[in-house]
Amino acid sequence: MLAPKDGIRQPTRRCGVGLLLLALSVLAGCTSMRQWWHQGLKVGPNYGRPMTPMADDWMDAEDPRVLSGKQAWNWWYAFNDPTLEQLIRTASQQNLPLRVAGMRVLEARAQRRIAAGNLFPQSQNAFGDYTRQQFSRNAVFPPRSMAQSFDNWSTGFDLSWELDVWGRIRRAIEAQDAELDASIEEYDDVLVTLVGDVAVTYIEIRAFDEALELARQNVDIQQQSLDVAEARLASGRATQLDVDQAQSNLASTEASIPLLKQNRRQAKNRLAVLLGLPPSNMGSLLGPPGTIPATPKKVVMGIPAELLRRRPDIRRAERSVAAQSARIGIATADLYPQFGLNGEIRLQSEDFSDLFAGDSTAGFIVPGFRWKILNYGRLTNNIRVQEARFQQRIAEYENSVLIAQREVEDAVAQFLRSQERAAKLEKAVTAAGRSVKTAALQYGKGKIDYDRVFILEANLVRLQDEHVRAQADVAIGLIRVYKALGGGWQIRLETCPIQEIVRGEDILSPNEATLPRNDAPSPGAKEPLPLQGEPLPMPPPATEKAN
Questions:
Q1: What is the pTM (predicted TM-score) of this model?
Q2: Which stretches does DSSP call E strand in 24-148?
Q3: Is residue 249 classed exposed, middle or buried when 0-12, 13-18 and 19+ CB atoms within 10 A define those classes?
Q4: What angle, 0 to 180 degrees and rounded to 10, lies between the N-to-C axes of helices 96-117 and 82-94?
Q5: 182-209 pLDDT, tens per residue?
Q6: Which domains does the chain have, with CATH numbers?
């Protein structure tokens, strides 16, 4: 009886020694084992944030209207318009694309938890079954002396566990961590865009309000000129040409009013959708027609390097680089053998009453490995694929930084140059208004012909339209500066609409707004994002709605 046992044990010993020698040969023959050891038993590169070109300062840094210092994130308070403030707060709570971005964060969080679960046995199943076997009485086997039927009760538990020797699973967790961060940055990017779009649309509505009011005033002025021309024609002191010119000016100005109303209605419809509301007149939110809010003449900008922290789209692009870096490690791990453990423990008995007895225990354990050999270069080429995608992500990150700097410079140019243009147009409008009054008086007295009145009134309408547009461009330019600088996403730290979707689970808490350190050795290293300066003080409540 001893010989068979030894015969069974010898192959087992040989198999164990063979596995050990195989593992040692892998460890000894792999040139990257030292790196694998120092990286916490993970193959593939550890991530570090790539460098990107940044300007030393803004092109208009010497302009006295461009200030350095801490930028307030709630920049819309600078307009001192309670209606604008309420619209932005409403949009941040009700906008539907923002809600979609929030649900993507929930999705990314769940995906990260799935990846983390793979550290534990990847497959585990509890089972139970009952079998009744009936043999034929006319068959050769079993003999009639044996039982012709029997029962079998069985229950137990099995598992399959791949050991994360090379860090493939941990790299997958790193990738999902970075994807989760990227989804949060995407939420913030949508929020920055939303706040800017709400403010720009509101400014456009107020610009149309002003333009409509000016058009109505010009209609009154031009109607008076037409009345004078008709009176002079009736008295024989003017020709039909004067009346025709006056009617032409009046009809042209009147024709602009329906277009302005159309544009204002369309702007209100855009604003309603941004607020997550069906299109309507929005009288309760906008109040009566008003004017463009007073715009500050100066802007606080800081330095270009701060864009890396301020702009969510840049942070999202950087997190995508980190996720792709981890995927290189996942692909590299496929070059090495996968060590695993399969096992099962069960209770098995013919009689159910004996199922839970000690002698009913059975099971097995099977340690082993699998190695993808003869893969015809597929594994190494998959690594090259992931490395190429990594380089693509780096280029996209660098390009996003360049685009961000361009957007800031464009917005600053619009803000500063529109101020200068608005100031000149204001003088032109004032002079044109005086000239129209003077020309109307002189025409009424017969000192000049109607040609000068016709030209001056048309010129006044044009200059007033340009002046309103320039004033709107100043405000919109300032909004675009703050938007390009990445301000406004911090409003979610005050109120998070996702809390209303998933009760008790604040997916966008301040602790999750993170960014890897500049010298981070791996994607897991994080630090809280700073708020961009102190918030502006809340204005005192207004007794009347600002116009």
A1: 0.81
A2: 66-67, 123-134
A3: buried
A4: 40
A5: 999 999 999 999 999 999 999 999 999 9
A6: 31-119+164-336+371-528 (1.20.1600.10), 122-163+338-370 (2.20.200.10)
